[in-house]
Amino acid sequence: MHRDFEELAIRTRDSVKIFVVLSFVASLITLTAWHFLGAIVLWHWEVAVATTGALLIVVLCFKRLSVAASSTIVFACAGVVLFSSAIATNLLAQSGARFEAFTGYKLVAVAVAILAPAPAWVGFSIIAICAVAPIVHYFVLPFDIRQAFVVQEPWYTLICCVIALFVFRHRLRELQLERALTRVAAEKQAVNNMAKVFFFLRDITNSPLQSIEITALLLKERQIEQTSAGRHLERALARLRELSQTLSSYERNIDWSEPASFDAVTDMQRTLAQMKGSSRA
Amino acid sequence: MGESLGVATSSILLVEDFEELLELETILIESVCGRTAVPAKNLREVIAHGESALKCEFAIIDINLGAGEPSGVDVYHWLRSKGFEGHIFFLTGHAKDSPIVAEATRLGDVKVFSKPIVPDRLIRIMRGEFDA
Question: How near does any CA of chain A get to the CA of B24, in Å?
């Protein structure tokens, strides 16, 4: 795999890891804070800490998670944090204490938007949940409990999620562009490597070709014995054969989906023109 | 002066790392062109030839003389530093814009030919028809 592609894959894995770490740390801080506030009985944040902790272990242990596995982990992590946040918001509203509602939703939406840890549809789904769930949550609560919420909610959370949506869209475009540039760089690198191979090929083949030409001339001029000429030709051909054997080991890399019969010179010229185009891109 | 060293004044210095080609060019020079060849595979062998190489009328040198070996351009510099005044022709299988060929071209008082060169043209050069 091209070096830049490897780096891109590592960064994608890192964004999943950072998202899980943030979820774990946020759950742990909330658990600790609630413990000190003496309100641990309201909601056992140990569940969120244990779940995000387990997911963190999975992410750390499996270096090469598939896209589906990464998406599932991001979904699970966001789900745990949002569910805990929803219950916490509910219980705090009932307790009559002063509090900031739907904090988890806002933080998850912003984290997903900035980190872009999963494919587009996963990110958009999570941000959409973060935007819609607080509104539903708010309106299903009895009127007297709703009075405990600050006047801006749940619209403030909705606006945060809309902003997160735009940030996420921008991040996706940025990643798309980065992938495209990486692909171009990889193609350019491949073309450069091929050009080097052609350079060496010319150097390897020209001397035997020159030998064959001189032998043919010497034969025509009767300046060389047939046995001697045959020996010279054999040596020149041996060098070309050696080259042919070296190159044949790379034939398995060819995409044979194209027609089996071909005109080698025309096809080579076409391929070279394509390569030249790629290297200029 | 060349004859006193046992080398005809019409001798040609040949520097080529591909032994097969060196042998054939030597035959070509001696049988078709009626001259004497001073063959060498690299700079070390050119230096070993000493005066025989320096007294040659002109030199035909391959630019790439193999991995880890001084190039044909190094042979050129050695010859010139030792007072070699004959024409120098470079033969190369490399592209014109490769650094080593570009360096050879910049030397000015040389001619660079691409390999494989048409044998008739090579013979004309070996016969001293330098405008070939």
Answer: 7
Question: Which of B:58-87 have CB within 8 Å of A?
Answer: 62, 64
Q: Give the pLDDT confidence of B70-111 residue by residue, as tens digits.
A: 999 999 999 999 999 899 999 888 777 788 888 898 998 899
The closest CB to that of B28, out of A202, A218, A239, belongs to A218
| Inter-chain residue contact B32 with A221, CB threshold 8 Å | yes
Q: Using CB atoms, which residue from B24, B94, B118 is nearest to A211?
A: B24
Written in H, E and C, the secondary structure of chain A is CCHHHHHHHHHHHHHHHHHHHHHHHHHHHHHHHHHHHCCHHHCCCHHHHHHHHHHHHHHHHCCCCCHHHHHHHHHHHHHHHHHHHHHHHHHHHHHCCCCCCCHHHHHHHHHHHHHCCCCHHHHHHHHHHHHHHHHHHHHHCCHHHHCCCCCCCCHHHHHHHHHHHHHHHHHHHHHHHHHHHHHHHHHHHHHHHHHHHHHHHHHHHHHHHHHHHHHHHHHHCCCCCHHHHHHHHHHHHHHHHHHHHHHHCCHHHCCCCCCCCCCHHHHHHHHHHHHHHHHHC
| Percent above pLDDT 70 for chain B | 91
Substitution target in B20, B60, B112 with the highest count of A β-carbons within 10 Å is: B20
Considering only CB atoms, B24 lies closest to which of A215, A221, A239, namely: A215
